[in-house]
Design brief:
Elements lengths: L3 H10 L18 H15 L13 E11 L3 E13 L5 E2 L5 H4 L2 E24 L2 E28 L7 E17 L2 E2 L4 H43 L4 H18 L4
Antiparallel strand pairs: 1-2, 2-4, 3-4, 4-5, 5-6, 5-7
Helix pairs in contact: 1-4, 2-5
Bound molecules: 2-acetamido-2-deoxy-beta-D-glucopyranose (4 copies).
C-alpha cells in the first residue's frame, strides 16, 4: 500500500480532469480522466475515517504542536493546541474534460471554506534595526479561508530515465483566495485591538497570497513537488498509473466510510 505522501502526491496529479489541445497519447490515456474522477471521489469518501496510515482529514485534528523558528532577526517559539481544520473534503472540481482526447491535463479545484480552530501560545522577539522587540501572544484561533481555488495544467511526457515511464511537464498553477474571515482573539489584547488586527488580516491575507504567488509556484512546485512526483512516475506507464488509481479507488470504496 502506498504511503500517505505518495497518496497525497497522486491526489494532486489526480486533480487533472480537464484539458485543451490534442497531442500524442500514451496507451491508457483514454481511461485517465475517468479513473481520476473515481479516485478523487473515493479519496474524499475516506477523509472522515482515515485509511491505512492516512490520518482522518475531515476534520484534521492536531491535539498539540510545538514550533521553534530561530534566526539572527527573530526568535519565535510556541505551540498550538487543539487545532481543528474543517472543510478539506468540501472540494469541488469546477471543470472536467477528457485528457485522453487532448493530452493537456488541466484542473480547476475549489475549496469553498476551510475553517481553522484552535489556540496558540507564542513567545519571542523580532530584531528591528538592532532593537529586540518582544512578541508575546496567547490567542484563540478562529479563521477561515473562503473560496480557495487552484487552477492549473500540465502534460505528461516520457521519463528521462525510463522511456516507458512518465513525467510531468509544463506544469502551471495559480491560486486564488476570495477572502479570509479572521475572528482570532489574542487574550493579552483588548477587544478593539483584536478587531483591528482581524480587519487588517482580512484585507491583507488575500493580497499577500497574490504577491507570493509567482514565488510559490516557481519555487515550491518546480523545485519540490514536481521532481518528487516525477521520481514516483519514472517507472510507471500510463496504463499502470490508471490501474493504480483504480486499485486505490476500489480499496477506498471498500472501506465503506460513512461520514
Ligand atoms: C506551550 O505549552 C505549554 C503547556 O503545555 C506551556 O507551558 C508553554 O508555556 C507554552 N508556550 C510556549 C511559548 O512555549
Ligand atoms: C486597547 O489597547 C490599545 C493598545 O494597547 C489602546 O490604545 C486602546 O486605547 C485600548 N482600547 C480600549 C477600549 O481599552
Ligand atoms: C526506476 O528504475 C530504476 C532502474 O531499475 C531504479 O534505479 C530507480 O530507482 C527506479 N525509480 C523508482 C522511483 O522506483
Ligand atoms: C520502466 O518503466 C516500465 C513501465 O512501467 C517498467 O515496466 C519497467 O520496469 C521500468 N524499467 C526499469 C529499468 O525500471
Amino acid at each position: 500500500m502506498a504511503s500517505i505522501s505518495q497518496v497525497l502526491l497522486l491526489a494532486i496529479v489526480g486533480l487533472s480532469v480537464t484539458s485543451a489541445t490534442p497531442v500524442v497519447q500514451q496507451p491508457g490515456s483514454a481511461q485517465f480522466t475517468s479513473s481520476m474522477t473515481r479516485f478523487l471521489e473515493a479519496f474524499r469518501s475516506i477523509m472522515p475515517c482515515g485509511f491505512n496510515g492516512i490520518p482522518v482529514l475531515a476534520p484534521l485534528e492536531t491535539p498539540f504542536y510545538e514550533f521553534e523558528y530561530i534566526s539572527d532577526d527573530y526568535t519565535v517559539v510556541g505551540n498550538v493546541s487543539n487545532m481543528r481544520i474543517e472543510g478539506l473534503d468540501g472540494f469541488q472540481v469546477l471543470s472536467a474534460s477528457d485528457y485522453g482526447k487532448t493530452g493537456e491535463a488541466a484542473y480547476d479545484l475549489l475549496f469553498p471554506k476551510i475553517q481553522f480552530l484552535g489556540s496558540s501560545d507564542v513567545e519571542g522577539f523580532i530584531n528591528i534595526g538592532g532593537i529586540k522587540v518582544p512578541i508575546r501572544q496567547k490567542a484563540v484561533i478562529n479563521e477561515a479561508l473562503i473560496d480557495l481555488r487552484f487552477v492549473g495544467s500540465y502534460s505528461f511526457a516520457n521519463s528521462q530515465t525510463n522511456s516507458s515511464g512518465l513525467r510531468i511537464i509544463d506544469f502551471q498553477q495559480s491560486v486564488y483566495l476570495a477572502g479570509v474571515r479572521m475572528d482570532n482573539r489574542n487574550t493579552l489584547w483588548n477587544i478593539s485591538t483584536n478587531n483591528f488586527w482581524n480587519r487588517v488580516m482580512n484585507t491583507y491575507a488575500p493580497l499577500a497570497l497574490q504577491e507570493m504567488q509567482p514565488g510559490l509556484t516557481n519555487f515550491l512546485y518546480q523545485n519540490y513537488m514536481i521532481p518528487k512526483i516525477n521520481d514516483l512516475l519514472a517507472n510507471v506507464s500510463m496504463a499502470e498509473l490508471v490501474d493504480y488509481y483504480q486499485t486505490l479507488a476500489q480499496a477506498f470504496e471498500n472501506a465503506n466510510c460513512k461520514a
